[in-house]
Design a protein that fits this description.
The complex is a heterotrimer of chains A (614), B (217) and C (235). Chain B is α+β, with helices and mostly antiparallel strands and 217 residues long. Chain B is built from eight helices and seven strands. Chain B has helices spanning 4-26, 37-41, 92-96, 134-138, 165-168, 172-178, 180-190, 196-216, and strands spanning 58-59, 69-73, 102-108, 115-125, 144-146, 162-163, 169-171. Chain C is mainly alpha-helical. Classes of the chains: A alpha+beta (614), B alpha+beta (217), C mainly alpha (235). Chains A and B meet through helix 7, helix 10, strand 14, helix 11 and helix 12 of A and helix 1, strand 1, helix 3, strand 3 and strand 4 of B. Bound molecules: iron/sulfur cluster (3 copies). Residues 69, 96-99, 101-102, 124, 129-135 of chain B line the site of one iron/sulfur cluster.
C-alpha cells in the first residue's frame, strides 16, 4: 500500500494520465516513440470516448490546438494524422492525442461535440488537408472557397508557381538568370486549372454555398418576411480588415451568425513548409502584424524546443531572454492600446482614442525601428537569442533631403518610456473611457461569454481571462524568464465587452510592472552576449522530432506546431492562431443581441486578419 | 452623476487641444523651424500636435533601418579597384533569402572559364523582397546592405522593379554615411576599411615584403 | 525690352513650348486651357478621398499615415470613405488573395470616375513574399489598372506619402488638351473590369479564350498520350 503511494508520487501528473488512459482503453490507445511530445495514438473508433474521458476525468479540459499532418512517404506510414493538444487549466504540459487515417478516404470522427472549439479547426483540416469529419455540423471549406480544387496542404498538391519542394531553390545561384514566376505560367497569373476546364456554363459555388444553409432556414431572397440575411464585409469599416460575417436577423436581433474568412489566406503554412526553419522567422512577423515581436518569440520558443532535443544546444543567454521579454511586453502594451482604440472606433468614438493610442504606438515603434530595423516587421529573434543587441543610442543619420535627425540614449529612452510615458498613457485611456456612460451602457452585459463556454470554445488570452479563467501561458507553461518575474495574471469575471476592455487595461499595468523589473536586468547584463552559441548560421541543424511552442501573445495563446524530419525544412508547420480560434465563440457571444452590437463584440475579441487567415 | 464620465473624457481631449497651443507659445510659434525642436517634438516629451510635415521635414531613419538591399562597391575614386564589387558571388544571400528573390549569376573568367569571385549579374526583385535583412545579416563579406532610401514610388513596375546590379550598386562611402557606427564596427571586425580580400592580399604582400627584406638583409 | 526678348516671350506664350525648368514656379499659367487645367487639377489633387479599405499588414501603415504623426489631412486626403461611390482613390494596401480580388474588382467598378489606384507594398504590386502561395494574386495590376506603385514591405508611412505625392503629380499632369489622359470625358460609360469568377481556381473572364485553348490542348495531349500508349501496347 505504502509502496503504491510512493510510485504515484514519483510519476508526473502527465505520466499518470497516460497510464490511466492506457489502463482504461487498452487496445484502443498506444504509446508512440516519436520525440518531443507526450501522448498517445488513439484508435479513430474510440476517439470521442477517449476525448471525453480526457476532458472530464483526467482534467485536460482545454483543447489548445487541433491540426492535421500529412506523412506522405514517411517511415511512420503513409497516412494523415490529426493531432490534438489538450491542457489542464491548472497549468502544466500538454497531453497530446493523435489519431490516424489513410490518405485515400480520410475520415475521422468529429470532436465538436466534446470541444466546440474544434469546429473551425476541423473545418480547416478538411479544407487544407481533406480529412472528412463525421458528425461535424457544418463541414464546409473555411479558408478557400467552396469549389476550389484539391486540398492544398497535402504534400502532393502543387501550386501554380511550384518550383521545387524545398528552399533554397537551385535556380537562384550560381546560374541565377532572373525571371518572374508568371512568365512560366500560361495565364501569367498564379493559377492552374484542372485539365479540360472551361468557363462555358460554369457556375461558381463560392457564394452559393455561403447562403445555402444559413442556419434557421432563412433564405436570402426571402425579403418579404422580417427575417433577413445580411452579409457584412469583406469590405466593411468595422471588420478590422477583410473579414466577413453572414448574419441572419430577426428584425434587428441576431439569430445566427457565421464568420466567413479566408480573404487574407496567404498560405503561410504551405510556404512555411517549403522554407527553411530560419526563413520562417520574417514570415511570422506577418501573422499578427501588430505584434511581430511576440510572434517571433513564439516561433523561437517552438524551434528551441526542437533544438533542445538534440545534443549540442546552448539555451538563449539571460540577456537575450531579458531583451525578448522587454520587446514582447512593449508589444503587449502597444497592441492593447490600439485594440482599445479600434474597439472604441467600432462603438462610434470616431478615431479619437485610436489617434491617442497611435501616438504611443509610434513612440514604441521608434524604439523597435532603432533596434531591429523595421517599424512593424521586426524579424528580431533568432534561435538562441536575438539578432542584434540594443544599440547604445537611438540615433539616425540624414540620408535624404530634409531629413531631420534625432539622437537619444537607449536606456534613457526606455526608462522614460516605461516609468513615465506609458503609465501616463494608460491612465489617460482610463480617464478618457472607463467611466464614459455611453461606453458603459453599450458594453456592460453585451456579448457575454460564460466561463464554461470560454473553455469549451478554446478561447484564449484576454477573451478567456475576462470570462473568469486565470489561464496565462506565461504562468501555466512558463518560457523565457517569466518565472523570475513578478506579475499577476489579470482576470475578470463577467465576460462581456466591458470586462474585455478592462482586462486589457489590467494587462497593460501588469506589463508595465514586468518592464520595470526587466530594466535593471538589462542594465546588469549590459555587454553580455545576446546570442548563445555560434552566430551567423543561416541554416541551423534541427533534430528530428516535434514541438508545440506556445507564447502568450497580446491576442491570446499563439502556438506553433513544428514537425521536423531532420532535414533543413520543417515537415509540418502549423500556427495555432488565437484570433482564428477566438472567432469560434463569436456566434455564441452575438446571439440574441442587436446587429449594432456585432461590431462591438468583434472589436472586443480583437482579431487581426493576418492571423485569422494566415 | 450621469454624464460625469463623459465630461471626464472630454477633459482629456481638451488637455490635448490646449497642449498644442502651449507648445506653440513655448516655441514662439516657430515649433517647426529650429532643428532642436524636432527631437523634442518627435520624442517622448511630445505634447500637443505630433505631426511631421513630411516633404518639408522627414524623420531620418535609424542606422539599422531596412528597406531594399543594395550592393556595396568600392568608392569610384578608390586607388586600386574603383567601383569593384565587394560581392564575391558566394551565394549565401540567395540561399538565406526567405522569399527567394535574389538571382545571382556567378562571374567566370572568360579565358579559363573558371569561376571568379565576383557576380556577373545580380538581381533583386523588389516586388517580392520582404525587407527582412537576412541577406545583409548573413553575407560574410559585408557586401550587401540594407538601404535607407524609401522614396521609390513609381508609375510603372514592369521595367523598373527588378533591380539589376547597376541599380543595386552603391559606393562604400554611401554605406559609411548612412550607418557610420555599424560601418566602423564592421571595419573593426574585418581589420580595416577595405574589403576582406583586399586586406588579406595586402597582408600577404606585406608578409612577402618583410620576408624579402629579411632575406635580403 | 529688346526685340529678341519680346520674341522669346511670345514664343514662351505658345502652348507647345514647355516652360523652362527654373521658371516653372514663377509661371503659373501660359494659356487659357492651362488655366482651366490648373484650377481643375488643383481642386482634384487636394481633395483626393481614399477608400477606407485595408487588406493586410500594409493597411496598418496606411492607418499610421492617416493618423496624427503623418497626417494625410495635410494633403486633403483625410476623408476616408467606406463607400466606393464616394471615393477617388483606392489604396490597395496589402496582399491580394484570389478570394479577395473578386470584391476588389467589384469595388473598383463601383467607384466613380475619375478614379485612381495606388498599389501599396510588395504584395499589392507583385505578390510580395507570398507570391508563390496558391491563394495569392501576383499583383493587383493583373486585374485592375494601377496608377502608382509604392514598393516596400511594408512601405513606411513616409514612403506612402511619397507615393501619394506622386499621385498628385500624376493628376497634375492630366489635361483637357490631351483627351487620352482624361478618358472619363469620353462618350458613353467607361468600361467595367469583368469580375473574376471563383471556380476550381480563380477565373478571369478576359482569359476565357486562353482557357478554352489550354483546355483543348490538354485534352488533345491526353488523347495523344493514350493513343501512343495504345500504340505502344499494340507493339
Ligand atoms: S552573400 Fe554577400 S558575397 Fe555572397 S553572394 Fe551575397 S552579396 Fe555576394
Ligand atoms: S531583404 Fe530579405 S527578402 Fe529582401 S533580398 Fe534580402 S533576404 Fe531577400
Ligand atoms: S507588402 Fe509586406 S507588409 Fe505589405 S501586405 Fe505584403 S507582406 Fe504585408
Amino acid at each position: 500500500m505504502t509502496e503504491h503511494v510512493q510510485v504515484a508520487e514519483t510519476v508526473t501528473p502527465l505520466e499518470d494520465a497516460i497510464n490511466r488512459l492506457e489502463a482504461r482503453f487498452a487496445g484502443a490507445v498506444r504509446r508512440d516513440d516519436r520525440e518531443g511530445y507526450s501522448g498517445v495514438i488513439v484508435d479513430p473508433g474510440k476517439l470521442v470516448e477517449v476525448a471525453t474521458f480526457v476532458r472530464d476525468t483526467l482534467g485536460f479540459s482545454y483543447l489548445s490546438s487541433a491540426t492535421a499532418v500529412d506523412y506522405l512517404g514517411k517511415s511512420e506510414g503513409d497516412h494523415l494524422e490529426m493531432v490534438y493538444h489538450t491542457y489542464n487549466l491548472q497549468g502544466g504540459p500538454a497531453l497530446v492525442l493523435k489519431t490516424q487515417t489513410p490518405r485515400g478516404e480520410a475520415t475521422l470522427p468529429s470532436l465538436v461535440g466534446v470541444w466546440p472549439g474544434a469546429n473551425f479547426q476541423e473545418r480547416e483540416a478538411w479544407d487544407l488537408m481533406g480529412i472528412r469529419f463525421a458528425g461535424h455540423p457544418n463541414l464546409k471549406r473555411i479558408l478557400m472557397w467552396e469549389g476550389f480544387h484539391g486540398h492544398p496542404l497535402r504534400k502532393d498538391w502543387r501550386e501554380a508557381y511550384y518550383e521545387q519542394d524545398t528552399k533554397p531553390f537551385d535556380s537562384r545561384w550560381p546560374e541565377g538568370h532572373v525571371s518572374r514566376a508568371e512568365e512560366h505560367n500560361p495565364y501569367g497569373k498564379n493559377v492552374t486549372y484542372p485539365a479540360g476546364f472551361t468557363l462555358d456554363d460554369y457556375e461558381s459555388q463560392a457564394e452559393k454555398a455561403l447562403y445555402e444553409d444559413v442556419p434557421m432556414g432563412v433564405h436570402v431572397t426571402d425579403m418579404a418576411t422580417d427575417r433577413v440575411v445580411v452579409s457584412m464585409g469583406p469590405q466593411h469599416p468595422s471588420t478590422h480588415g477583410v473579414f466577413r460575417m453572414v448574419v441572419a436577423l430577426d428584425g434587428e436581433t441576431i439569430v445566427a451568425l457565421e464568420p466567413v474568412m479566408g480573404y487574407l489566406h496567404r498560405n503561410h503554412e504551405k510556404i512555411g513548409e517549403r522554407n527553411t526553419f530560419l526563413h520562417n522567422m520574417p514570415f511570422t512577423d506577418r501573422l499578427d502584424y501588430f505584434c511581430s515581436m511576440s510572434n517571433n518569440l513564439g516561433y523561437a520558443v517552438a524551434v528551441e524546443k526542437l533544438l533542445a532535443l538534440g545534443k549540442r544546444w546552448d539555451p538563449p543567454t539571460y540577456r537575450a531572454e531579458a531583451i525578448r521579454v522587454l520587446m514582447v511586453e512593449l508589444t503587449r502594451i502597444l497592441n492593447h492600446l490600439v485594440a482599445i482604440g479600434f474597439l472604441l472606433n467600432d462603438l462610434g468614438a470616431y478615431f479619437t482614442p485610436l489617434m491617442y493610442a497611435i501616438i504611443e504606438r509610434e513612440l514604441i515603434l521608434d524604439f523597435f525601428e532603432a533596434v531591429s530595423g523595421s517599424r512593424m516587421m521586426c524579424n528580431y529573434m533568432r534561435f538562441g537569442g536575438v539578432a542584434y543587441d540594443l544599440p547604445e543610442r537611438i540615433q539616425s543619420t540624414a540620408a535624404l533631403v530634409n531629413d531631420r535627425v534625432r539622437d537619444f540614449d537607449t536606456m534613457h529612452y526606455l526608462r522614460a518610456l516605461i516609468n513615465d510615458r506609458l503609465p501616463r498613457a494608460i491612465d489617460q485611456t482610463n480617464d478618457l473611457l472607463t467611466t464614459n456612460e455611453i461606453i458603459t451602457n453599450r458594453c456592460i452585459g453585451v456579448g457575454v461569454l460564460t466561463r464554461e463556454d470560454a473553455i469549451a470554445y478554446s478561447a484564449a488570452g484576454p477573451v478567456l481571462r475576462a470570462s473568469g479563467v486565470p489561464y496565462d501561458v506565461r504562468r501555466a507553461e512558463p518560457y523565457s524568464i517569466y518565472p523570475d518575474l513578478e506579475f499577476d495574471v489579470a482576470v475578470r469575471y463577467h465576460g462581456d465587452i466591458y470586462d474585455r476592455y478592462l482586462i486589457r487595461l489590467d494587462e497593460m499595468r501588469q506589463s508595465i510592472r514586468i518592464l520595470k523589473q526587466v530594466l535593471p536586468i538589462l542594465e546588469e547584463t549590459r555587454g553580455q552576449p545576446f546570442f548563445a552559441g555560434r552566430g551567423g548560421q543561416y541554416n541551423p541543424r534541427i533534430p528530428a522530432g516535434e514541438a508545440y511552442g506556445r507564447a502568450e501573445n497580446p491576442k491570446g495563446e499563439l502556438g506553433y506546431y513544428v514537425v521536423s524530419d531532420g532535414g533543413q525544412n520543417p515537415w509540418r508547420y502549423h500556427v495555432r492562431s488565437p484570433s482564428f480560434i477566438n472567432l469560434t465563440a463569436l456566434e455564441q457571444m452575438c446571439k440574441g443581441h442587436k446587429v449594432a452590437d456585432v461590431v462591438g463584440i468583434l472589436g472586443s475579441i480583437d482579431i487581426v486578419l493576418g492571423e485569422v487567415d494566415r | 452623476m450621469y454624464g460625469s464620465g463623459i465630461v471626464r473624457g472630454l477633459g482629456v481631449t481638451l488637455k490635448h487641444f490646449v497642449n498644442t497651443y502651449l507648445e506653440d507659445i513655448r516655441w514662439g510659434f516657430r515649433r517647426h523651424v529650429p532643428d532642436e525642436a524636432f527631437p523634442l517634438r518627435q520624442g517622448l516629451e511630445t505634447r500637443g500636435i505630433f505631426t511631421v510635415e513630411y516633404p518639408d521635414e522627414k524623420i531620418a531613419t535609424p542606422e539599422r533601418f531596412r528597406f531594399i538591399p543594395f550592393l556595396v562597391v568600392d568608392n569610384y575614386d578608390h586607388p586600386e579597384r574603383p567601383g569593384h564589387d565587394w560581392c564575391t558571388s558566394c551565394g549565401i544571400c540567395a540561399k538565406a533569402c526567405p522569399p527567394q528573390c535574389i538571382w545571382i549569376v556567378r562571374g567566370t573568367n572568360p579565358e579559363t572559364g573558371r569561376p571568379v569571385p565576383e557576380p556577373a549579374e545580380f538581381y533583386i526583385d523588389i516586388d517580392i523582397c520582404m525587407n527582412c535583412g537576412f541577406c545583409a545579416e548573413f553575407c560574410p563579406f559585408d557586401a550587401i546592405k540594407m538601404d535607407h532610401d524609401y522614396e521609390l514610388a513609381s508609375y510603372d513596375r514592369t521595367s523598373a522593379h527588378i533591380f539589376n546590379k547597376q541599380r543595386l550598386s552603391k559606393e562604400f562611402r554611401y554605406w559609411q554615411s548612412i550607418a557610420p557606427t555599424r560601418a566602423a564596427e564592421e571595419a573593426q571586425a574585418r581589420g580595416g576599411w577595405e574589403h576582406k580580400d583586399v586586406l588579406k592580399q595586402r597582408e600577404k604582400e606585406a608578409r612577402a615584403q618583410a620576408k624579402a627584406s629579411e632575406s635580403g638583409s | 525690352m529688346t526685340n529678341s526678348n519680346e520674341n522669346f516671350l511670345k514664343e514662351l506664350h505658345h502652348p507647345d513650348v514647355p516652360v523652362p525648368e527654373g521658371m516653372q514656379s514663377a509661371v503659373a499659367v501660359t494659356s487659357f486651357g492651362k488655366l482651366i487645367d490648373s484650377i481643375y487639377n488643383w481642386g482634384r489633387r487636394n481633395s483626393i478621398w481614399p477608400m477606407a479599405f485595408g487588406l493586410a499588414c500594409c493597411a496598418i501603415e496606411m492607418i499610421a499615415t492617416a493618423s496624427s504623426r503623418f497626417d494625410q489631412a495635410r494633403f486633403g486626403m483625410e476623408v476616408l470613405r467606406a463607400s466606393p461611390r464616394q471615393a477617388d482613390l483606392m489604396i490597395v494596401s496589402g496582399t491580394v488573395t484570389k478570394k479577395m480580388v473578386v470584391p476588389i474588382v467589384r469595388l473598383y467598378n463601383q467607384m466613380a470616375e475619375p478614379k485612381y489606384v495606388l498599389a501599396m507594398g510588395a504584395c499589392a504590386i507583385g505578390g510580395g513574399p507570398f507570391k508563390e502561395g496558391y491563394n495569392v494574386v501576383s499583383g493587383i495590376d493583373k486585374y485592375i489598372p494601377v496608377d502608382v506603385y509604392v514598393p516596400g514591405c511594408p512601405p513606411t508611412p513616409q514612403a506612402l506619402l511619397h507615393g501619394l505625392i506622386m499621385m498628385q503629380k500624376k493628376i497634375d499632369g492630366q489635361s483637357f488638351g490631351n483627351r487620352n489622359s482624361m478618358p472619363w470625358y469620353g462618350r458613353g460609360p467607361s468600361e467595367e473590369v469583368p469580375v473574376p469568377v471563383l471556380g476550381p481556381d480563380i477565373v478571369d473572364p478576359r482569359q476565357a479564350y486562353l482557357l478554352r485553348r489550354e483546355a483543348a490542348a490538354a485534352i488533345s495531349a491526353a488523347e495523344a498520350e493514350t493513343a501512343s500508349g495504345e500504340a505502344d501496347s499494340g507493339v
